């Protein structure tokens, strides 16, 4: 039991560090001031550039779970995040600064599939569903703290925001102490399996199935437009004279606080709403984006972000739980890696895709991005309702197969 408490803490530390990826969105307007000769698309690349290596190293991390323990992979990822996250403070050339984001993304890619893999291996039933929500809540706590810190530090200079990446060093020390040296497969050889709530005694299986691919595609379709808030909010706030760059940090903090609250309550929310949880939460997100597209002042931004964070935490916790539920035994890290790869592709395409949308329709305001996103969220709400029906059929089919196999085993044993 003490071991499981340590693993829970390790999962929460990993989730906190992954929130560092969004601190970059606060400094975009300051970067534009520091490098006026660089166009807006390349400035936005400071946020999206990391997605290239997140994509590669997420897949690599999923594959490496078959060769290395998760403790070693987490340690390597946290080291990369800390080193490359702080490095821009010593650089003056914008191209070199962009290159550091590649190393930063590599670290994020290594650790991103591992939280769900640890939840799947060491926890079951209600505790697994609850911890899926808690994990996302902890991510939002980290995002709230980091966003507020970034909002304060950016006013003293954009480079000072990079100091937040030193949190990865603290997480590295904590995780090295908290995570066991051995995987569940090795532990089961030495301990009674009844004392450990592990899903599988296998390490790093490279398997997938159709339900997982459907969930990964749904996550991609949701997460890609949602990430527009990180690429365009800072630019909209400046363009519309809503306020300074610090408003973006405080807005992200409001979103994170809302996500923290609903993330902690996800287990209870899912218990009440079951399969329609995701659809209802998506409707809430679409309302938030409609509010954001019509924001007139800082209070409007904060309210919109709070509404978005409330729905987003439930949507992502729901999708993560579905991924764990349908992943083959021992393959959660690999399946999570596949889903994260799609998300990384989407995140990289966000500034380019929405930029093309603005230019093709001759839109001059970034508000149009958030209005389009709200419309996309409404269509996804309907899609998730259809998924809820499909999921029920899949679960019935899987249950029938399981009952059939159990009956066959019982007949065989009786003979």
Mean pLDDT, as a whole number?
A: 80
What is the count of DSSP helices, taking H or I runs of 4+ residues?
18
So what's the overall shape? globular
Fraction of residues in helix:
over 70%
In sequence order, what are the helices and strands, one letter per element?
Answer: HHHHHHHHHHHHHHHHHH
In terms of per-residue confidence, which ranges show pLDDT below 50 for 5 or more consecutive residues? 184-204
**Class by SSE composition:** mainly alpha
Rg calc: 21 Å
Largest sheet, described in full? Answer: none
How would you describe this structure to a colleague?
By secondary structure, the protein is mostly helical. It has helices at about 1-20, 30-35, 40-50, 50-65, 70-85, 95-110, 115-120, 125-155, 165-180, 185-190, 210-225, 230-240, 245-265, 265-275, 275-295, 300-325, 330-360, 365-415. It starts with a helix and ends with a helix.
Summarize the entry for a quick read.
The chain has 415 residues and is mainly alpha-helical.
Per-chain topology:
Blueprint: H1 2-18, H2 28-34, H3 40-48, H4 50-64, H5 70-86, H6 94-111, H7 114-122, H8 125-153, H9 167-178, H10 184-190, H11 210-226, H12 228-239, H13 246-264, H14 266-273, H15 277-293, H16 298-326, H17 332-360, H18 367-414
Helix pairs in contact: 1-7, 1-8, 1-9, 3-17, 4-6, 4-17, 5-6, 5-9, 7-8, 8-13, 8-14, 8-16, 11-16, 11-17, 11-18, 12-18, 13-16, 15-16, 15-18
């Amino acid at each position: 039991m003490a071991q499981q408490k340590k693993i829970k803490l390790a999962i929460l530390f990993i989730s906190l560090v992954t929130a560092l990826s969004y601190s970059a969105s606060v400094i975009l307007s300051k970067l534009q001031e520091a490098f006026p000769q660089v166009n807006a698309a390349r400035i936005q690349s400071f946020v999206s550039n990391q997605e290239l290596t997140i994509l590669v190293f997420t897949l690599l991390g999923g594959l490496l779970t078959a060769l290395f323990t998760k403790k070693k992979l987490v340690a390597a990822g946290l080291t990369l995040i800390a080193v490359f996250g702080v490095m821009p403070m010593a650089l003056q050339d914008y191209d070199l600064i962009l290159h550091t984001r590649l190393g930063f993304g590599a670290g994020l890619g290594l650790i991103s599939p591992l939280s769900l893999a640890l939840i799947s291996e060491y926890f079951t039933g209600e505790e697994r569903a609850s911890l899926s929500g808690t994990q996302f809540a902890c991510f939002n706590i980290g995002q709230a703290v980091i966003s507020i810190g970034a909002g304060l530090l950016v006013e003293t200079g954009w480079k000072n925001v990079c100091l937040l990446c030193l949190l990865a060093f603290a997480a590295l020390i904590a995780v090295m102490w908290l995570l066991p040296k051995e995987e569940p497969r090795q532990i089961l050889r030495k301990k009674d399996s009844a004392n450990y709530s592990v899903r599988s005694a296998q390490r790093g299986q490279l398997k997938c199935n159709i339900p997982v691919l459907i969930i990964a595609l749904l996550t991609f379709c949701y997460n890609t437009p949602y990430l527009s808030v990180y690429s365009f909010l800072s630019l909209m706030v400046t363009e519309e004279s809503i306020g300074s760059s610090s408003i973006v940090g405080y807005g992200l903090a409001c979103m994170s606080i809302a996500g923290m609250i609903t993330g902690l309550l996800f287990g209870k929310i899912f218990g009440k709403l079951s399969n329609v949880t995701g659809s209802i939460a998506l409707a809430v997100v679409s309302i938030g984006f409609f509010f954001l597209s019509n924001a007139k002042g800082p209070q409007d931004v904060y309210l919109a972000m709070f509404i978005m964070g409330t729905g987003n935490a439930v949507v992502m916790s729901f999708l993560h739980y579905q991924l764990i539920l349908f992943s083959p035994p021992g393959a959660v890290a690999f399946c999570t890696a596949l889903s994260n790869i799609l998300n990384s592709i989407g995140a990289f395409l966000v500034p380019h895709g929405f930029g093309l949308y603005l230019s093709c329709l001759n839109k001059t305001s970034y508000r149009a991005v958030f209005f389009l996103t709200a419309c996309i969220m409404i269509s996804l709400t309907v899609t998730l309702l259809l998924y809820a029906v499909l999921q029920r059929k899949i679960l019935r089919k899987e249950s029938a197969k399981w009952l059939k196999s159990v009956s066959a085993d019982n007949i065989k044993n009786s003979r």
